[in-house]
Amino acid sequence: xxxxxxxxxxxITVGSLSFLAGSFQRMQxxxxxxxxxxxxxxxxxxxxxxxFGFLALKPLSGTHTGQLKVPRPIRxxxxxxxxxxxxxxxEKWALRNLSFSLRVGEKLAFVGENxxxxxxxxxxxxHLYEPTEGRILLDGVDLNEYEPHDLRRExxxxxxxxxxxxxxxxxxxxxxxIPERGNxxxxxxxxxxxxxxxxxxxLPKKYDQMLGKRFSEGxxxxxxxxxxxxxxxxxxxxxxxxxxxxPTAALDARAEHEVFVRFAELIxxxxxxxxSHRFSTVRMADRILFLEHGQLLELGSHEELLAHDxxxxxxxxLQAKGYV
Length: 324
Ligand SMILES: Nc1ncnc2c1ncn2[C@@H]1O[C@H](COP(=O)(O)OP(=O)(O)OP(=O)(O)O)[C@@H](O)[C@H]1O
Ligand SMILES: [Mg+2]
Description:
Bound molecules: adenosine-5'-triphosphate, magnesium ion
């Protein structure tokens, strides 16, 4: 099970980021396995920078020694209790006294300006960091109590800056679940579900097409095409919580709608978190959490927040008129 790639510390040059899942240690081992499969040494060298980035990753700042298995199925969901958070080496509060619940089966959207703290909440949910103050509970038990690898295995994250590997198409998709990298039917099914198959159909070597311009025979994709590949990674796993962190920034309106329809299918029956700047997308969630400067400003369904007539309602109306 695999994959978490994140520039957790600013010092790490993994490049941009990707799909988050299983364990770091196992990922490293598996990636070494994957890399051994690449015979040509000159190609290997191109991966090394990223690879050493993985080795440098430190997922947790604290001493996390939990032993509990994540409940399957999760019964209640996640609970933030007065959570405040500062990044290491930062004096600024990224989150301040945040309390809310993410109920099992619920689709919750986070909205707020750049830097409001949306992605930070996701990192805390995945236990990449621990709260500076307060606690996060899963089914009533502190996240610290859970076995870290197990926790990450159950949370799939598609980040806004997903990782563009200089691998083939099928390898790029298999990154969502590396032990299944040889399972072509599973990879093709994931690609169909994410609509990546339409992109792949147009590539000269289809699933064996090398991606990225670093190789002479490599083909680079547009932002929207890459996103469909990144979304396919999520279909390779069976996580209980799926988080989509603004995946559609590079998509046009029609492509965005398609991706969200696919995402809705992906999270059917699961707990989902959706981060987007587009209110037309956000309103599809059961509830919306409006963040401002790391603090919870408003929380409720789209209708409730419109009736509340606060900042969400104001911004929604502005965006509906095409002003924002
Ligand atoms: N690795 C980091 N180290 C230090 N500060 C950080 C780090 N990542 C984010 N921050 C800070 O934490 C705050 C919240 O950032 P976060 O990325 O959660 O915002 P966001 O709501 O996801 O924004 P966007 O809409 O631009 O994605 C910001 O002030 C940001 O500068
Ligand atoms: Mg963000």
